[in-house]
Amino acid sequence: MKLITLGALVFGGTLIVATPVAVFGLPSNVTFSPLKPNPDIPTFAESVAASNDVHADEAEGSADRNQIRRAVIQRARALRAAPCNAGAKAAYLAAVSAYSVAKMEAVRAGEEDQWRTALDDQFGQVTDQQVMDGFVTMRESGQAMMAGARQGWLGRMVRDNGEAGASDWDGPGACERHQAGEVLPQLKLEHPRARPQPAPVSSDRENQATLLRVARESANTALDKDPCSADGRRAMLSGLSYYYEMRHSRRSFWPKDAGPDRYIDGRVTSLIRRGKLQHSELPRWVALAAPGVAATSGVAGPVCRDGR
């Protein structure tokens, strides 16, 4: 049996200072060195900064690529101007598909750096907003990015998904909201370099405190919205969904029966009792995180009468 001394080890982010231990079957010349960070692996902050970095596309064929990029934005705006037009919807999905096919071909050819312009970053912004605002469904957007423009595919997909403007989220699609007289939002595009840089890495305790604060602020801000307006109602349900999801999924460290959470539960309970919220529209996370709130007796019938 040989006795050797282990040096300082880093395991799971914790510095461990080892004492002499008995090691069986190891040669006497075995040594252990402290683990050192790999300089070739970027930190989280460096990764985010790299993702926000963009380059001009000046290689051969850039004019054609720019046309493909701009077509997505142009057709997205055309669909927003006519959310019930199946042709505008199909044209937008075709543009998304053409972009995805062209970029995939570049990746296979090892030319993906040509697709790191500001317009390429905005492609993701456009596709996210089109789904979030109900102009296309998540399934339609995903298939357009994955399937390619096969003959007859776009028309079949639009028909299979029902009325133009249908949505995957729990609420009316863009077409239905447009027909009801709602003014639909415009695209909001930002340059990737304009995004805020990530904050320095914090401890677990600091991260948990920040998450609690942000989630609770989100809930209270949502509850300040007017539940009888279309925009206010969507914002309220979205904020409550985020808060209760965080409260349920982070229950391992979320304080039990904390005052700020009782206050939020009380506000939600009051809305249910006054008929401003119906059980059927509550996010499913409410029942998981706060069963007592979900079991509150409410007022049956229309949520809002005469606009209030």
List keywords for this structure.
50% helix; single chain; 12 helices; two-stranded antiparallel ribbon; disordered N terminus; mainly alpha; 308 residues; 4 strands
Textual characterization of the structure:
The chain has 308 residues and is mainly α. The chain contains 12 helices and 4 strands, in the order ββββαααααααααααα. It has helices at residues 44-51, 62-81, 86-108, 118-132, 138-147, 153-160, 174-179, 204-223, 230-249, 259-273, 284-289, 291-294; strands spanning 2-4, 8-11, 14-17, 21-23. The strands form 2 sheets. The protein has a two-stranded antiparallel sheet. Helix 2 packs antiparallel against helix 3 and helix 3 packs across helix 5 (138-147). Mean pLDDT is 75; it is low at 1-24, 148-155 and 161-169.
What share of the residues lie within helices? 40-55%
How would you classify the helix and strand content by structural class? mainly alpha
**Could you tell me the number of beta strands?**
4
Shape: globular
Order of helices and strands: EEEEHHHHHHHHHHHH
Radius of gyration over C-alpha positions, nearest whole angstrom: 26 Å
Whole-number mean pLDDT = 75
